[in-house]
């Protein structure tokens, strides 16, 4: 199969020229490696690879999964099916009084992360010459099936902003595209356990004022140095939670002993893009225990940096620790992977937490 024949295959799936060339390079690398391959076997191998690629691309096109979500998580078309349970195409629009319109077209969510993709159309005459953008403020509130926010039946919640990626594909128009990431947790105080998503029906999201993100600086004391608004306004949305029962988890029966005090590992949760660990201490001294352990055993680094995930073959999974928090009673951390994984491959693997290793033999899909 020659280059021109493969290019006809790619024309059917409408990939970008850069992605076409990269995939052609991988498919044809066997021909250029200098190895002796029988022509028929080589042809079969290339046809199979092209067929697999077409299947993956067709799945991406059929679901409508935005390429930016895959690229953000370090994935390719072949990984689209792993994210499908958490993906939802939406049609959400909010318009400010000055006419500035924000449109959200896609949502990806699991029990820890929420990713939003869309675009913003600003009023004519607005100068868009900043290197990057962000909203000055945001507010993300989980809402239960009863229509109440936490405190109205299922405890408390916390949210954290992640990456805000804004692009201006055509500087000549008045449209900006964005991908925004948030992390969340919801606590069920009635049974003294975290119930991160099972009782959350949707989110209420509010954004205010688009600004130059370069001029936005958070001080050590928690105060913020902000910038004048590029586009003033307020935009609110009701965001569906598509991935509330998405992912794999295990509830270990083991505990960790710190200074003769027991710390329970309540849950280990895995999605295709991240690992999360939840700790608890019924005596309300978890924060003190972890602080002491960090100083004495972890060179002052946060306890989340001690968490190591290995798959069933013993391979260490690389990623970025997004946050590690704790209160007197509960603690949680999230590790974002550098690429997309099938959580099934971690069944039989291990997670090491605070120096103690836990088996993932009983890792199972999250129950509905």
Q: Overview of this structure, please?
A:
This protein has 368 residues and is α+β, with helices and mostly antiparallel strands. Helix content is 20%, strand content 40%. It is built from 6 helices and 21 strands. The protein has helices at 3-13, 17-32, 39-63, 67-72, 80-83, 286-297; strands at 87-95, 101-109, 113-121, 133-144, 156-167, 175-188, 193-194, 200-212, 217-218, 224-225, 229-240, 248-250, 255-258, 261-270, 274-280, 308-310, 319-326, 330-337, 350-353, 356-359, 364-365. The strands form 5 sheets. Strands 12, 13, 14, 15, 17, 18 and 21 form a 7-stranded antiparallel sheet that branches. α1 (3-13) packs parallel to α3 and α2 runs antiparallel to α3 (39-63). The longest helix is centred in the first third of the chain and has 25 residues, at 39-63. The protein is globular and about 65 Å long. The two termini are 46 Å apart. Residues 1-42, 44-62 and 191-196 have low confidence and may be disordered.
SSE map:
Layout: H1 3-13, H2 17-32, H3 39-63, H4 67-72, H5 80-83, E1 87-95, E2 101-109, E3 113-121, E4 133-144, E5 156-167, E6 175-188, E7 193-194, E8 200-212, E9 217-218, E10 224-225, E11 229-240, E12 248-250, E13 255-258, E14 261-270, E15 274-280, H6 286-297, E16 308-310, E17 319-326, E18 330-337, E19 350-353, E20 356-359, E21 364-365
Antiparallel strand pairs: 1-2, 2-3, 3-6, 4-8, 5-6, 6-7, 8-11, 9-10, 12-14, 12-21, 13-14, 14-15, 15-18, 16-19, 17-18, 19-20
């Amino acid at each position: 199969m020659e280059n021109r024949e493969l290019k006809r295959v790619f024309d059917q799936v409408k990939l970008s020229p850069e992605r076409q060339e990269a995939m052609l390079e991988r498919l044809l690398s066997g021909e250029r490696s200098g190895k002796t391959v029988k022509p028929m076997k080589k042809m079969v191998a290339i046809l199979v690879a092209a067929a697999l690629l077409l299947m993956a691309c067709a799945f991406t096109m059929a679901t409508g999964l935005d390429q930016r979500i895959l690229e953000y998580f370090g994935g390719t078309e072949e990984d689209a099916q792993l994210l499908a349970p958490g993906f939802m195409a939406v049609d959400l629009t909010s318009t400010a009084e000055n006419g500035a319109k924000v449109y959200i077209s896609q949502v990806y969510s699991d029990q820890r992360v929420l990713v939003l993709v869309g675009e913003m159309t600003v009023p004519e005459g607005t100068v868009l010459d900043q290197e990057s953008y962000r909203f000055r403020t945001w507010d993300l509130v989980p809402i239960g099936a009863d229509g109440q926010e936490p405190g109205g039946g299922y405890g408390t919640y916390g949210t954290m902003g992640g990456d805000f990626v804004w692009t201006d594909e055509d500087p000549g128009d008045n449209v900006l595209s964005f991908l925004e990431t948030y992390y969340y947790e919801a606590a069920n105080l009635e049974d003294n356990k975290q119930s991160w998503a099972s009782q959350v029906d949707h989110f209420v999201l509010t954004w205010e004022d688009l600004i130059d993100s370069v001029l936005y600086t958070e001080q050590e004391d928690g105060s913020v140095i902000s910038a004048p608004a590029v586009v003033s306004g307020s935009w609110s949305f009701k965001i569906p939670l598509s991935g509330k029962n998405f992912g794999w988890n295990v509830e270990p029966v083991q505990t960790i002993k710190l200074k003769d005090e027991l710390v329970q590992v309540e849950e280990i949760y895995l999605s295709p893009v991240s690992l999360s660990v939840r700790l608890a201490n019924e005596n309300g001294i978890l924060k003190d225990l972890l602080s002491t352990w960090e100083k004495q055993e972890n060179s002052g680094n946060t306890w989340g940096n001690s968490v190591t995930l290995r798959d069933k073959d013993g391979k260490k999974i690389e990623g970025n620790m997004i946050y590690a928090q704790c209160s007197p009673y509960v603690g949680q951390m999230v590790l974002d992977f550098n690429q997309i994984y099938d959580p099934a491959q971690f069944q039989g693997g291990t997670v090491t937490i605070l120096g103690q290793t836990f088996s993932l033999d009983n890792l199972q899909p999250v129950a509905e």
